[in-house]
Every structure is written in C-alpha cells, then in structure tokens.
C-alpha cells in the first residue's frame, strides 16, 4: 500500500502526539517522515537522503538495515518472539546476561532487564533504596535520598525524573518527585574563566565531599553519567573526575550508579565509559546502543553484594518487586547478542581511535566561527555550543530559534542533527566511514556559519 506525503502529513498531525514536542509548533511545520534506512543514511517518504548524524537518538551502532541484525531477528522470530521472564527463563536472555557480565566492569555480576533507559534507572534507584533497608532497616532508616548532578538527565519516569536536574522538564512534577541533593556538574566552559578542567574537577569534587560529609547518612546512592553528561549538552568531564566520584562514594558508603544509557556501547571510544577510569560502579544502567538501534531493551547490572541482600524466604518480602510484561523479550535479546557479536567480530571499537582523531582535527576549525563558544568532544560524542557573544558567553535568546534554524539548514543539505538548548549535538553512527564523517562535519559547519 502506498500513501502520499500529504496524506501521511495530515494523519500524523491528526493522530500522533510526539514526545518532548510542542505540538502547536510541530503542526505548523513540514514534517520529516522517514520511510527507510540504509547504512549511515535515512530516507524520507519522498526519497530524500540524509546522513544520520544523531544515530537515531543515540542508538544506532552498525548502520541501518543491517543484513545480519535483520537476520538475527528473523531467526529468533522463527523460534519465538516473546515469552515471559516471570518465573520462567528464555535462551537469548540467559546468553545475553552472561555476555554482559563478561563485558561490563568487574564486579557487576547480575543483570535485571527492562525496556528503556528510564526504566533501567528507575530499577537502579529502587534497588539502591531497598538494598539499605534490607541490610539494616533501623540503621539505614534515613538513607532515602539520591545525589545527582546539576543539569542531569536520567529519563522521564517519575523516579528517573526525580534525579534529574533540568528545571524545564521537572518543575511541573515537583510535588510527585522524591528529594534529591544536587552536586555541581563539571561544566568547565561555564564554570571557569580560562576553560581549565583541573580547576573545574577540584571544585566539583570538593563540593561533593562537603555534601557527603554532611548528608551521607541520608543518601542511598549517587547517580552519574560517566565521562559525558549527554542530554545536558555534551558536558565532557575532566579526566579523573569519575574516579574521584567513585572514591568519595566508597569512602562515605553511598552506592554509585553509573548511567551508561547514552555513553555505553562505544560512544566515548571504549565499550563502556567507566573503563576509561577503571571505575567499578555498584549499579550500571545500559540501554540505547544495546540492541544497536533495533528494539527497546535495557538492563541494570549490579553486584553480588546488592543481589544477595534481596535473597530470603518469600514471606520475608525481600523480593525485588519490579518487572514489565516484555522484560527479557527474546527478539530484543537476540538482536543485542548479534550486536555484540558484530562489535567483537568486526573490531568496531578498535576502528574508533582513527575516527575520533579525524573528528578532533576537523572540529578545530569550528572554534574559529564567530558564534561558537565551546566545542566539546569525547570519543564519538560532540557538542558545539553556540553563543551570541563569545566574550560574555551569552547564548542566543530562544525566541530567535537559531539552533533550530541550524538543524533545518543541515537537513536541507542532507544531514540530520539535533540541538540541545544552545548546543548542536553530533552523535555519528559508530560504523560511519571517515568520508561520511567528513560529509557530516562539512554540512554542520556550513549550517552554523550560514545561520549564525
Ligand atoms: N539516561 C540517559 C543518560 C539518557 O541520555 C537517557 C535518554 O536520552 C535516558 C537515561 C532515558 O532513556 P530512554 O529515553 O530510553 O528512557
């Protein structure tokens, strides 16, 4: 069956409510209706081709329409698409859990499945909270709060919103949220006059230690995105910051939750970001790249120590009461296993240093653009912060819609990228070739230069 653009446009506007989207504005614009994908490119309903410069919201790893990932899905569907994990097991979820334990930082030995980054965070928070009650309900009665970073984004379910630090998303739900304690985010560009990461790191860790000294008896856990705060605007942490946070969590008996939803699966140049500072979190959340952009699947990994606290007789009510209908779905686990198999077989992570270096060199020219205030890069994650006035680090007023016009310009020239506030974000597919990366940067550079 075929449809015209006009029909789809109308039905989209008549029936679909888009996420994180002001529908009044959306309905006035010409939509981008994607019909298919191939490799690094997306194609809209009219046949226009675009480089996927945001990995389809930070998920795609090997490219679109990958024959082997497609085959893995077909093969699994020929066996079974789904059966429940409640009181029963299934083959792909067992094999995937074993593999994830092998690949993630040492000490993370148990895998709890869910279906989005938000739910993986929700689970980590609930586990951390219940862990202390199970250890010693009386002694740890007050360990009910979580520390998270300014501008943090960990998802949009009520628990994950509670640990978020973005007022725009959270203010309206305040009465429903639990209490969080905020620590500074290492936003070197805005925190230091001379863009010095070391000063920024010392400041943030000192503040964290002050919070922990005063409040550690009330804190169940600290949640952090290792190395890069993605949705906050690609805030790249100074070297040693993550390690410093781990040390303080250990010293003050606070569980460390690493949210690797965005940074996991190669985005920062290693399979997991924690590896780069040899950090072993107590809980780790993974999602986005886990199925290489094919199906919704997430996991929360934790230690034997946390897991063991939940063991007991049914009547003791130590059970972790959480689970969703599609938890451990076979199709999703099968495609995740194939994703990991391809990563290992093709040595994709090993190809990244050359691409990352290429990006670094090409990004240098962006710094000379009049309205670029800061360029941040960690591996394949890039944020280009636009400013109206470089000296004052003043951003453009949102009413001018500068960032939106930049991405529209890029789209007209064949690349899809997205802004986060004043930051133009690039998150190329890991399998992109150097030529494709070059094309992406050329289009982005021209868009910023022309619009600003
Ligand atoms: N955590 C981080 C760090 C994220 O970047 C995101 C989404 O962007 C989430 C959690 C939530 O993931 P999801 O959108 O799959 O619920």
Q: If you had to describe this structure to a student in words, what would you say it looks like?
A:
This protein has 452 residues and is of the alpha/beta class. It folds into two domains: 32-65 and 348-451, Alpha-Beta Complex (Aspartate Aminotransferase, domain 1); 71-346, Type I PLP-dependent aspartate aminotransferase-like (Major domain) (Aspartate Aminotransferase, domain 2, 3-Layer(aba) Sandwich), CATH 3.40.640. The chain is 39% helix and 16% strand. The protein contains 16 helices and 17 strands. It has helices at 5-15, 23-26, 55-58, 67-79, 91-103, 117-136, 158-162, 167-170, 188-191, 197-215, 241-251, 304-309, 330-346, 348-363, 402-412, 434-451, and strands at 34-38, 41-44, 49-52, 110-114, 145-149, 180-183, 219-224, 228-229, 235-236, 255-259, 283-286, 298-302, 372-378, 381-386, 415-416, 418-420, 423-426. A seven-stranded mixed β-sheet has the order 4-12-11-10-7-5-6, sandwiched between helices. A four-stranded mixed β-sheet has the order 1-2-3-15. A four-stranded antiparallel β-sheet has the order 13-14-17-16, with helices on one face. The chain is globular and about 60 Å long. The model has no long low-confidence stretch (mean pLDDT 97). Pyridoxal-5'-phosphate binds next to helix 6. The site of pyridoxal-5'-phosphate has 14 residues, from helix 6. Catalyzes the transfer of the alpha-amino group from S-adenosyl-L-methionine (SAM) to 7-keto-8-aminopelargonic acid (KAPA) to form 7,8-diaminopelargonic acid (DAPA). It is the only aminotransferase known to utilize SAM as an amino donor. It comes from Aneurinibacillus soli.
